[in-house]
Amino acid sequence: MANVVELKVGLHCEECIKKILKTIKKFEDIEAYDIDTKLNKVIVKGNVTNEQVIKALQKIGKQASNWE
């Protein structure tokens, strides 16, 4: 069963977005992902949890929190 993870992440530049995409692509069982630069929102659909994605983004220096 796929989870949909929606996170608020600071998307400041193209380099930030590239780092985030590279990190997301490392997860196994990802069905889809999307980055909305206008809303600073990252959406990941697959066999992952909010906590897993937040921890991975924190490792690359990005602050992430659950989308409210």
Description of the structure:
The radius of gyration is 11 Å and the shape is globular. With 68 residues, the chain is α+β, with helices and mostly antiparallel strands. The chain has a four-stranded antiparallel β-sheet, covered by helices on one side. A hairpin with a 4-residue loop joins strand 2 and strand 3. It has helices spanning 14-25, 50-59; strands at 3-9, 30-36, 41-46, 64-66.
Itemize the secondary structure elements and their pairings.
Elements (H helix, E strand, L loop, with lengths): L2 E7 L4 H12 L4 E7 L4 E6 L3 H10 L4 E3 L2
Antiparallel strand pairs: 1-3, 1-4, 2-3
What is the strand arrangement across the widest sheet? 2-3-1-4
Could you state the order of secondary-structure elements as H and E?
Answer: EHEEHE
Taking pLDDT < 50 over at least 5 consecutive residues as the criterion, the unreliable ranges are none
Return the CATH class. Answer: Alpha Beta
Question: Radius of gyration, Cα only, in angstroms?
Answer: 11 Å
Mean pLDDT: 94
* Number of helical elements: 2
Strand-pairing-aware structural class: alpha+beta
Shape, principal axes of CA atoms: globular
How much of the polypeptide forms β-strand, as a percent range?
A: 25-35%
Strand tally is: 4
Distance between the termini: 22 Å
Main sheet summary: 4 strands, antiparallel
Question: Structurally, how many domains make up the residues?
Answer: 1
- Under the CATH scheme, the architecture is 2-Layer Sandwich
CATH fold type = Alpha-Beta Plaits
Subcellular location: Membrane
Protein name: Heavy metal-associated domain, HMA, heavy metal-associated domain superfamily
Pfam families: HMA
GO biological process, one term: plant-type hypersensitive response
